[in-house]
Specification:
The complex is a heterodimer. By secondary structure, chain A is an alpha+beta fold. Helices cover about 60% and strands about 10% of the residues of chain A. In chain A, strands 3, 4, 5, 6, 8 and 9 form a six-stranded antiparallel β-sheet that branches. A three-stranded antiparallel β-sheet of chain A has the order 7-10-11, with no helix packed on it. A two-stranded antiparallel ribbon of chain A has the order 1-2. In chain A, helix 1 (about 5-10) packs antiparallel against helix 2 (about 15-35). Chain B is globular. The chains are: A alpha+beta, B alpha+beta. Chain A: One of its GO terms (biological process) is vesicle-mediated transport.
């Protein structure tokens, strides 16, 4: 038998992979056969196991050695045990039956008199404990929590955390143990004890109040770490025990959230750390980062929050990619709560859109969406458009949608809105989601003053670049609807952009032929073109134009695509029935858009839609998945990107039947929106957000609470917006607090509530983040509390209204 | 809050150390190893951060000469702390092996695990003191 060293050397000296396989397989065979010998001396056995583990790190199959490792555990020698436990941790996983044998050995060793043996067993238990193990061994761990040996107590404390995570029914006992540990632990053991307590609180947020009493102690501990001289033993990176400082800060964030009293106790110290920590070294920056996260997580006063956000502002301007990355991520959730403080760093954030690191660009984008409001919309959308031009393909659809939703909500005037949309279509027309295009066409239909301008501009833009599908479709649609106006219309500002543009019957039809002949044409373009042509045929006067149009339509009478062929043949036949053609190609009824009217309140009156048959308007709205009442509440409650998602009709709860019905009806009236219906139904699934409807979670005479789930594609986890409405009709609701727990296997993060009091008729919102294996059902147990006129009320609610598989 | 796993890999993707704190099958483990190598080896150290997205979680990694030290954390975890924890681990290895190099980790892989087990348990940071850790590991070696 070769030694481990010789074996590793011979593997490393192999020149080819085939050689290596040869050596490895020979050794594996030798190891197998040596396990069969009963008379292996202890030294040779250890050497064999080591080689086996080396094989494991090479990625070989080593399951045959599991039992040998477990056998070593029973040896009385420390060397054997140490190797046995190492092998156990590497080769086994939680799901194997061999674990029962391991459980036995761990049980014995936890009670050993040798502290080093106990510590081996603890490490192993902590790393591989299964639910069963946790239940079998928790009493041994409890005993060790009061061990006189410091190191063992620390390890046992963290093991206890893992045990409760695996077997939550033991929680109650362990809370008491953790309190006892706090009473006993010096600053050396405090790190482990806090880790344990945080673990308990994360498993069950309802436990948090039990630890409120610790805040003064933690604060003074933190203060002394920051101010007293260095304890060299725990100095890392120039900071006194930074890992403990950070752990305390994390625990304070949990203890201070939604609790003004505990927050008050920690405010001063947080401010002190935020101002005194030396950020020139990376470790200092790390502590500072955690400190600001805590400040933002607790209900710290606005001044302190601003200090915190300014620290992030400094991070953003740093040369370090890591600092920018963390600051952008941490600022996103705060943008809604402290908009002004975050706005101040707008330029730095927008500069990050050009960062070479793609994840920094992504975070900067997310954050800049949150910064858009009435005042900033022009600046930010301009930056976003500039970014849209150069960004990776994967971002284009997302940015287009966000710009569109920002424009819908905050456009300063209609012309800016239309210009912005044309720019989006020209820059990313091949990635523009169907509903963005549909929204734009509705907008144009509703802007009679700007139709000529829009038509001319789209004509010019399309002549300049016919490679952008959505732009081409928009232009085709607009020419079909307003071709007559374009011929007789005067030159608008559009000619400033495209001075050489010539618009007459021939150039209009030329555009159609160019589009149809180009390599960029697609089935969607062809369908839109056919319908647009038949419309144009009644808007142009000269017989030669009509003849050209007829020939263009006829080109498709033998198209392979049945739908296109059918349109072509039917439209061609219409040329024999001029009366029918005229009425069929009449201008499209102007679709009503409530969203726009609400956003552009000032100009809404003069833009009142022409009278339309009610049913048609409703069907169009259905097509866009717009459920007006719901959108209204979303916008008023958050004003965030959610609203955009809703506006764009990605509502999962939309019954598909209505879409199909609508589709038929629309096609009957030759409306071009019919085309949008098919793809937009698909977009329901593939859009960046999936949203559940807002479900009622709780209601009484004073307060109504609703939950709405949102999921972003590609990003696991579910964001739940909890909204609280004051329906009391009389006074103000104060001290609103919500604790939430989820079923086992899921994890929940509770973000701070936007405001803990709401006036009569007002509302506030709080976000929960749920992560876990996809497809799991999401169920909550919620504890809701509030005070009204001095009397407080508390209720427990179980909420399971979300559809299955939302996660 | 806790780490999912710690990996040390070289630039060719050979794993030098792997400690998984959550239950994965061996097949999942090897899938993770090759995916992590794909992710970190293609990143540009000079122009990118030390954080990368990984299956809805985050990889915090740091390169030392030809070795990548990677840990997997939750999305809302403090990435910078784990970066510092990695550095602390490497400094301790450096003291322990007296100028550590990749070969030390190859020939003494079992000792590296011993150091790791003194610093992390159940995916949590247990010990942060360099002196304490070194004293303990050396004591363990003497027991052999």
């Amino acid at each position: 038998m070769t030694s481990l060293k010789a074996f590793i050397k011979s593997v490393r000296s192999c020149k080819t992979i085939a050689d290596e396989r040869n050596v490895v397989q020979k050794e594996a065979a030798a190891i197998r056969s040596s396990f069969r010998e009963s008379s292996l001396d202890p030294h040779a056995r250890r050497e064999t196991i080591l080689k086996l583990l080396y094989l494991f790190t090479l990625g070989e199959r080593t399951h045959f050695g599991q039992i040998e490792c477990v056998k070593l555990l029973a040896s009385s020698k420390f060397t054997d045990k140490r190797l046995g436990y190492l092998g156990t941790m590497l080769l086994l996983d939680e799901n194997q039956e061999v674990l029962t044998l391991v459980t036995n050995s761990i049980n014995n060793d936890l009670n050993s008199a040798n502290p080093y043996v106990v510590s081996l067993a603890l490490s192993t238990l902590g790393n591989i404990a299964s639910q069963e193990m946790a239940r079998d061994l928790f009493q041994d761990i409890v005993k060790l929590l009061s061990s006189p040996v410091n190191n063992i107590r620390k390890k046992a404390t963290i093991c206890a955390m893992r045990i409760v995570a695996k077997a939550p029914e033991l929680e109650e006992d362990f809370v008491e143990y953790s309190k006892k540990l706090f009473a006993e632990s010096d600053s050396d053991a405090l790190l482990a004890t806090i880790t344990f307590a945080i673990g308990l609180c994360q498993n069950n947020p309802a436990l948090v109040p039990q630890y409120y009493y610790l805040v003064p102690r933690l604060v003074s501990e933190l203060k002394s770490l920051g101010s007293t001289g260095f304890n060299l033993e725990y100095e890392v990176g120039g900071i006194n025990n930074p890992f403990l400082q950070i752990k305390i800060l994390q625990f304070l964030a949990i203890l201070g959230s939604n609790n003004p009293e505990t927050t008050e106790q920690m405010n001063d110290t947080l401010a002190q750390i935020a101002t005194n920590t030396e950020s020139s070294r990376s470790m200092g920056e790390t502590v500072l980062y955690e400190c600001v996260r805590t400040i933002l997580a607790v209900a710290a006063d606005s001044g302190l929050r601003t200090v915190g956000i300014n620290i992030f502002g400094k991070f953003l301007a740093s040369k370090e990619h890591n600092s920018r990355y963390v600051a952008l991520n941490a600022m996103a959730p705060v943008a809604e709560i402290e908009p002004n403080a975050v706005q101040r760093h707008r330029n730095t954030i927008l500069a990050c859109l050009q960062d070479p690191d793609v994840s920094i660009r992504r975070s900067a984008l997310e954050l800049s969406y949150n910064l858009i409001n009435e005042q900033t919309v022009r600046v930010i959308v301009r930056e976003l458009l500039a970014h849209l031009e150069v960004c990776d393909k994967e971002f284009k659809a997302g940015i287009s949608t966000q710009i569109c939703s920002a424009a819908d909500r905050f456009a300063p005037d209609r012309k800016w809105h239309i210009d912005t949309m044309i720019r989006v279509l020209s820059l990313s027309g091949n990635y523009t989601p169907e509903e963005v295009l549909a929204g734009f066409l509705v907008l144009v239909a509703n802007s009679p003053d700007l139709q000529l301008y829009t038509a001319q501009k789209l004509f010019g833009a399309t002549k300049a670049d016919i490679s952008q599908e959505a732009l081409v479709i928009a232009a085709i649609w607009v020419i079909g609807e307003f071709g007559d106006k374009m011929i007789v219309g005067t030159k608008t500002e559009a000619f400033e952009t495209y001075p050489d543009m010539i618009i007459n019957e021939d150039t209009l039809i030329d555009l159609y032929s160019t589009v149809l002949d180009s390599q960029y044409t697609s089935a969607a373009i062809e369908k839109y073109t056919l319908t647009s042509l038949i419309k144009l045929s009644v808007r142009l006067n000269s017989p030669s134009s009509t003849e050209r149009i007829r020939r263009l339509i006829q080109r498709f009478s033998k198209a392979l695509d049945v739908d296109i062929q059918e349109r072509s043949v039917e439209y061609s036949n219409l040329f024999g029935h001029n009366d029918v053609r005229r009425s069929a190609a009449a201008p499209m009824p102007v679709p009503e858009i409530k969203v726009l009217e609400r956003v552009l309140k000032s100009s809404a009156n003069k833009l009142k839609a022409k009278p339309v048959t009610k049913s048609n308007a409703d069907l169009l709205l259905d097509l866009m998945g717009d459920e007006p009442s719901q959108v209204a509440s979303t916008v008023s409650a958050t004003g965030g990107p959610t609203a955009g998602a809703d506006l764009l009709g990605m509502n999962d709860s939309e019954p598909s039947a209505s879409t199909t019905d609508a589709n038929k009806n629309i096609q009957d009236i030759l409306g071009l929106f019919g085309d949008a219906s098919g793809p937009s139904a698909v977009a329901n699934v593939s859009g960046p957000y999936s949203v559940t409807s807002e479900e009622e979670g709780y209601v009484d005479e004073n307060l109504r609470m609703t939950l709405e789930g949102q999921r972003e594609d590609g990003v696991p986890g579910l964001t739940v917006l909890v909204r609280f409405y004051n329906v009391s009709g009389s006074g103000e609701l104060n001290d609103i607090s919500l604790a939430a727990a989820v079923s086992k296997g899921l994890k929940i993060q509770v973000l701070p509530i936007a405001s803990t009091s709401i006036g009569n008729g007002a509302s506030t919102v709080q976000k929960l983040k749920v992560t876990g294996p996809s497809g799991m059902n999401v169920k909550f147990r919620l504890k809701l509390g509030y005070t009204m006129n001095g009397s407080s009320k508390e209720s427990q609610i179980t909420f399971a209204k979300f559809p299955a598989g939302i996660l | 809050m806790a780490l999912q796993f710690i990996l040390i890999q070289n630039r060719q993707g050979k794993t030098r150390l792997a400690r998984f704190f959550s239950a994965y099958t061996k097949q999942e483990e090897s899938g993770i190893k090759s995916e992590i190598h794909r992710i970190v080896s293609t990143r540009d150290g000079r122009h990118q951060s030390n954080f990368a997205d990984f299956r809805g979680k985050k990889i915090v990694y740091r390169r030392y000469a030809g070795l990548y030290f990677c840990v997997c954390v939750d999305n809302y975890d403090n990435e910078l702390v784990y970066l510092e924890a990695i550095h602390n681990f490497v400094e301790i290895l450096d003291d322990y092996f007296d100028n550590v190099c990749e070969l030390d980790l190859v020939f003494n892989f079992y000792k590296v695990y011993a150091v790791l087990d003194e610093l992390f348990i159940a995916g949590e940071i247990e010990e942060t003191s360099k002196a304490n850790t070194l004293a303990r590991v050396q004591r363990l070696d003497m027991l052999e």
